[in-house]
Design brief:
binds FE2/S2 (inorganic) cluster; Glucose Oxidase, domain 1; 20 helices; globular; 12% strand; four-stranded parallel β-sheet; alpha/beta; eight-stranded mixed β-sheet; single chain; 3 domains
Length: 569
């Protein structure tokens, strides 16, 4: 084992490594014969969705000891989506890089990845993939259902809806404040099919979690039981040398894309899966999401696209029951952390509530996966989630109303004199990976108050940023290349006619190629990158790739492997 390079033999160096690590553990724990397992733990009081992961880590430790391994808690930088500014996405790659470096630097033979809140699971998977030691994911699980005045209240989704209701005069400020107290009811991550629930499902569909574990509510004792079992399994995986690159193949990415469609998952999964694939050298492209996923029917009736919440999905049979329904679309070649084919894990899956999980023969929507749009506004692509969009807007032509930043948007959107109506197309730019920086979740721009008062609840919106997985609407996201690097988005002008055609997968401005090429980028976009930056932000802006490639740093693509570094003494 790799850890034998630290602990094996009886030299001055192995003496030093062992002596400092004994700490009351049995003699044979440091002879280089028992697997040394790091539990990469993103518990943090400032990442509320991951606050409970120390408790989960304890169950993992019990399982590791039981199976003959030796566990170590390895605290990792954490990202609380609701807290960090300007956006948690700015640091996803930093967490991935820290994960990679700390695994490689330490006497570790295998890793358990403990995440939950949106960016933590993708970051851990990216880092672990670049080291490629045996790894298993445990997602911290969703919180319990919230309710307000007898109605289900989903994290995030409720905020977007209620804040629009307040602006439209349909909800009092007092009710708005009181609803806040019942939204986050227990430990766990967001309980809608937002990014955290989606990425937990992606980790399992990729084969990186024990089948059946994703979506287990955080307060449910079965999460701890699954954590214990994962601790046992990682020790076996080290013995079998079963690595992320054996599990996360093109076949498993194809299965994850099928899952993304069937669960109506977050558009954020697109950038995360592309980035994880980039670490493994798997040739995954934006077009694969449309080719594999767009025709997959929507089976899961969860907010934001539907009615229920994650606790209901778990009760109704969980991800396994969903995936059994779409089994004919799955690649049978994909395996899981069990070493067995993914499809074998679905044998006993069953739907227990068809209001929550629809049958394949009677889907909630026939084609629900993410659609990839191209055209003169987005030569490298843009995405839309038709399941969360208004059907009547999927083919739409309207005049552009341009905003140069989210601050510009907030300052003007409710101006009674703003030239906007129900046919307008709102365009927000400067929100891409480099421009913001970090590609924030600002794309689901609020509807102008004067239109809300007329009962208009959706407009076509276009942005080079991302959208919260808990949000909804006819929102075109991840426009690439972004405005701040001079992409065509930076050249649009107020009043330009924008043509969206989702069935034809196109997004165009109705001007000639010559005119578009001749137009300069807006002054705001030219200035976006001109300010001085330092530290991580500088490194990030200089090296982040565009969203259609996964927004990883260019020098983090690929793998460095698990080779033992040079001795330290
Ligand atoms: Fe953490 Fe939503 S804020 S998962």
């Amino acid at each position: 084992m790799r850890s034998a390079d630290w602990y094996g033999g009886n030299s001055k160096d192995s003496y030093i490594h062992r002596a400092w690590m004994r700490r009351g553990n049995p003699d044979d724990s440091l002879t280089g014969t028992r697997p040394q397992i790091a539990i990469i733990n993103t518990a943090s009081d400032l990442a509320p969705c991951n606050m409970h992961l120390d408790e989960v880590a304890q169950s993992v430790k019990n399982g590791i000891w039981e199976a003959g391994g030796v566990p170590y808690n390895l605290p990792m930088v954490s990202l609380g989506e609701s807290n960090v500014r300007p956006t948690a996405m700015l640091w996803r790659n930093m967490v991935a890089m820290s994960t990679e470096e700390m695994i490689r630097a330490n006497p570790v033979d295998g890793v358990v990845l403990l995440g939950g809140c949106d960016k933590t699971i993708p970051a851990l998977l990216m880092g672990a993939a670049s080291v490629d030691l045996p790894a298993i994911v445990i997602s911290g699980g969703p919180m319990l259902n919230g309710t307000f005045k007898g109605q289900l209240l989903g994290c995030g989704t409720g905020v977007w809806k209620f804040s629009n209701d307040v602006r439209a005069g349909k909800m009092s400020q007092e009710d708005f404040y009181n609803s806040e107290k019942s939204m986050i009811r227990s430990k766990g991550h967001c309980n809608t099919m937002g990014t955290a629930s989606t990425m937990a499902s992606m980790a399992e569909a990729l084969g990186m979690s024990l089948p059946g574990l994703a979506g287990t509510p955080a307060p449910d004792s079965r999460l701890l039981q699954g954590a214990h079992a994962s601790g046992v399994r990682i020790v076996e995986m080290v013995a079998e040398n079963l690595k992320p690159s054996d599990i996360m193949t093109k076949s498993s990415f194809a299965n994850a894309i099928v899952a993304l469609g069937a669960i109506g998952g977050s558009t954020n999964a697109v950038v995360h899966l592309l980035a994880i694939a980039g670490r493994l050298g798997v040739q995954l492209t934006l077009d694969d999401f449309d080719r594999i996923g767009s025709r997959i029917p929507l089976l899961v009736n969860l907010q934001p696209a539907g009615e229920f919440l994650m606790e209901d999905l778990f009760r109704a049979g969980g991800l396994g029951a969903v995936m059994k329904e779409v089994q004919q679309h799955l690649d049978p070649g994909a395996i899981t952390v069990t070493g067995k084919p993914y499809i074998e894990s679905l044998k006993n899956a069953e739907i227990y509530d068809e209001k929550v999980i629809a049958k394949y023969s009677a889907p909630l929507q026939p084609e629900a996966g993410i659609a990839v749009l191209k055209g003169n506004i987005a030569p490298d692509g843009a995405v839309i989630k038709p399941a969360a969009a208004s059907k009547n807007l999927l083919v739409h032509t309207g005049k552009a109303v341009i905003f140069e930043s989210i601050e510009d948007f907030h300052a003007r959107i409710d101006d009674p004199n703003l030239d906007v109506d129900e046919n307008s197309v709102l365009v927000l730019r400067g929100c891409g990976p480099k421009g913001y920086p970090g590609m924030p979740e600002v794309s689901n721009m609020a509807i102008p108050k004067k239109l809300l008062e007329k009962g208009i609840t959706d407009l076509v919106r276009i942005c080079d940023g991302r959208m919260s997985g808990t949000a909804f609407g006819t929102v075109v996201l991840h426009v690439s290349p972004e405005g701040a690097i001079g992409g065509p988005l930076s050249k649009l002008q107020n009043g330009d006619l924008i043509e969206l055609n989702v069935p034809e997968r196109s997004l165009n401005v109705k001007i000639s190629d010559q005119e578009l090429a001749a137009r300069p980028a807006s002054a705001a976009m030219v200035q976006a990158l001109a300010q001085p930056h330092r530290g991580w932000e500088k490194l990030y802006i200089e090296h982040v790739e565009q969203s259609h490639l996964g927004a990883d740093l260019d020098f983090l693509r690929g793998a460095s492997g698990s080779k033992t570094p040079r001795e330290s003494h």
